[in-house]
Write a structure and sequence with these properties.
Blueprint lengths: L13 H4 L10 H11 L4 E6 L6 E5 H18 L6 E5 L4 H12 L3 E4 L6 H11 L3 E4 L12 E4 H4 L16 E6 L9 E5 H14 L18 H12 L2
Parallel strand pairs: 3-4, 3-5, 5-6
Antiparallel strand pairs: 1-2, 7-8
Helix pairs in contact: 2-3, 2-8, 3-4, 7-8
């Protein structure tokens, strides 16, 4: 149910969301960049940790700056359009910046939970063909050997590079692996066009705008994270 009491069954069908007049056909990376340009000082991310490190926030301009610096580091490392790059970070603002940065650099991201067993991380990296992993200095020991690491702390003090590769609806956006509870985990590749359609539908169904706040609590290793992050970031919320 929505907060107006209307059933989601009455919301615009997912298939129709992509063709809604005035809905536009911009992809999620473009929508985030537009929000950062229009409302740079608005809050993009806010958090309050339970480990004693306290609360924090990033404006759209600050988040966009982190995205640009990490993306530039990925380009310098050799990431090419269409490449898969792992993101091996704990729950943090840098994780969101890293996923957006992989897109800006032209790649598709692969969430890698640093708490996963070594064998699962190694399988996911090998099976997806990921050559690069964005991680932190504290977690640099977790990605499998043989990958090129981009350390977020090292990328923070360096400027951007452009122009950035163009992103099309048929290009890969991210890779999610199944749990493996019924056998070998399987990677599912989601394209930017499909992601944009889902995000556009959610913004319509829930009327998400700049004044809204969306809680992010799902594991980034499951598809639910896209519904908690991108509709808000695409709307300036």
């Amino acid at each position: 149910m929505t907060d107006t009491g209307e059933s989601l069954l009455a919301s615009p069908p997912l298939a129709a969301a992509a063709a809604t007049p005035g809905g536009g056909d911009d992809l999620v990376p473009e929508l985030f960049a537009q929000a950062a340009a229009v409302t740079p000082q608005a809050t993009a991310l806010a958090w309050d940790t339970s480990d004693g490190r306290g609360a924090g926030r990033l404006s759209y301009a600050e988040l966009d700056g982190r995205v640009t610096r990490i993306a530039a580091a990925l380009r310098r490392a050799g990431l090419a359009p269409g490449d898969v790059a792992g993101v091996c970070l704990g729950r943090s603002a840098d994780t969101v910046a890293a996923m957006l940065a992989v897109w800006r650099a032209g790649g598709a991201y692969l969430p890698l939970d640093p708490d996963y067993p070594d064998e699962r991380l190694a399988f996911m990296v090998a099976d997806s063909g990921a050559r690069f992993v964005v991680t932190s200095a504290a977690l640099a020991h977790r990605p499998p050997q043989g990958t090129d690491l981009v350390i977020v702390e090292s990328a923070q003090g360096k400027g951007g590079a452009g122009p950035w590769p163009a992103t099309g609806p048929g290009q890969p956006a991210y890779v999610i692996y199944t749990s493996g509870s019924t056998g070998q985990p399987k990677g599912v590749l989601i394209e930017h066009g499909a992601l944009a359609t889902r995000v556009r539908w959610m913004r319509q169904a829930y009327a998400i705008g700049p004044a809204d706040r969306v809680a992010q609590f799902a594991s980034l290793n499951f598809d639910a994270h896209i519904e908690e992050l991108y509709p808000a970031l695409a709307a300036g919320g």
